[in-house]
Design goal:
This protein is of the alpha/beta class. The chain contains five helices and nine strands, in the order αββββββαβββααα.
Length: 212
């Protein structure tokens, strides 16, 4: 592995560990019963070209099920433009210049649809979490994009919304849902997912994008 790749991989692992810890701390304060699942590989045969997907963090709590896509970009300003087909084009304006990045909301959206089909009658929502304090996000960006500062109040907002809708789950249901997700993941490994991703990228491109 080239030195630059090793550095990027190390940064990614560190940012994911930091992000997971921040999510865990924030949710456990409001939901002591919450289950926080990390790096879960689930089968998504009907939801994209790649037959598996990695879920960075899934929080199961009394307010529902919440997926977090953790993004560890170190610095820069997020800019979102519209392409000729109306699709969002994301990039980070870094000191070294602009860098195009995949639309993280679109990536998470396919995973959310899978979870909603697999776990009916439950509040399920996804968030994109930028961990670095040196990342600037637009003021008008979707509320589903959060920073570390947002995590301090996000669990309370979600609880208030679930309570208002009379949709708070019992502790038993929280554990049942978390266990059912782990059962869906049983037998699926990161090694398998990496091989699936490599095989998918070798195929001729068609409409849509692989879920990672």
């Amino acid at each position: 592995m080239p030195p630059s790749t090793k550095i990027m991989s190390k940064r990614s692992n560190e940012s994911e560990a930091f992000g997971t810890n921040q999510i865990l701390r924030a949710f456990r304060r409001t939901y002591p019963e919450s289950r926080v699942l990390q790096n879960v590989i689930l089968p998504l045969d009907n939801f994209g070209a790649c037959p598996t997907a990695e879920f960075d963090v899934i929080v199961v709590c009394m307010a529902g099920v919440y997926l977090f896509e953790i993004k560890g970009y170190d610095e820069g300003r997020i800019v979102i433009d519209k392409g000729p087909d109306g699709m969002q084009l994301w990039k980070i304006n870094k000191i070294s210049g602009p860098v195009d990045i995949p639309n993280p909301i679109a990536q998470g959206g396919r995973k959310i649809r899978y979870l909603r089909q697999s776990i009916p009658n439950c509040q399920i929502r996804g968030f994109v979490y930028f961990t670095s304090e040196r990342i600037t996000i637009p003021a008008d960006i979707s509320a589903d994009v959060v920073t570390t500062a947002d995590l301090s109040y996000l669990p309370r907002v979600l609880r208030s919304d679930a309570k208002r809708r009379d949709r708070l789950l019992t502790v038993t249901t929280v554990n049942d849902i978390a266990d059912s997700i782990l059962m869906l993941a049983e037998g699926h490994t990161m090694e398998e997912h990496i091989q699936n991703c490599l095989a998918t990228h070798k195929k001729p491109r068609t409409e849509g994008h692989a879920i990672h």
